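Run log, item B.
One chain of 239 residues. Sequence copied directly from the ordering sheet:
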Amino acid sequence: MERLQKYLASCGVASRRKSEELIKEGAVSVNDVIVTELGTQVGNNDVVKVNGVVISREEKVYYVLNKPVGYITSVKDELNRPTILDLFEEKDRRNRIYPVGRLDFDTAGVLLVTNDGEFSNKLMKANFEVEKEYVARVEGIVTKLEILDLKKGVTLKTGYATKPCKARKVSIDRKNNSTLLNIIIHEGKNHQVRLMCEAIGHKVKKLTRVRVGSITLDDIPRGCYRRLKIHEVKELMGR
């Protein structure tokens, strides 16, 4: 027996939290009876439906995409802009995959994509603290004191105070008045790295996420993807 919301997540319906919302909304039935109690248990012989459609466990798939600039980190967009799913082959899209977290429209790099709600939910938890590494080209020459401020944590214009992080200067381009930074954070607030750089007085010109946990962009051309290996999934899950 298994809790209903966990079963929904394992079937790739949604994250566990979103599955709980679906249950509360009355969108889920077990053996043709609408269920709204989160503690409901289901077994192998139960017929579970979401909005009248029978669901079942599906193969869990995990990908790393080298996201290009100019793609929305979503499965659909109301403005008909290209989404990250447009970069996947039709046979892989059939697994009802979706992105884990997000990368801005104008940010490139490592993006994890899956149909495993439990995997996605765990990686997105604030206290899980998986490392996310970025390379940022910013306007102006960044000083040692500004790097120290980043390391200690800065207050964003949203009012959020960031946690301590790792930050260093990779190189300085005095001719074009810019600095290349390497920043490693554990958090995942919207536009966080861009806002962190703005907080020390430097606007981001170009931003790439080069690593999530142990997953990098090695041998993955921009706009391409590959399946994660079993040991990579286990490492990300902390097992």
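Observations after the first pass:
- Residues 97 and 115 are 4 Å apart (CA to CA).
- The radius of gyration is 20 Å.
Flagged for discussion on Thursday.
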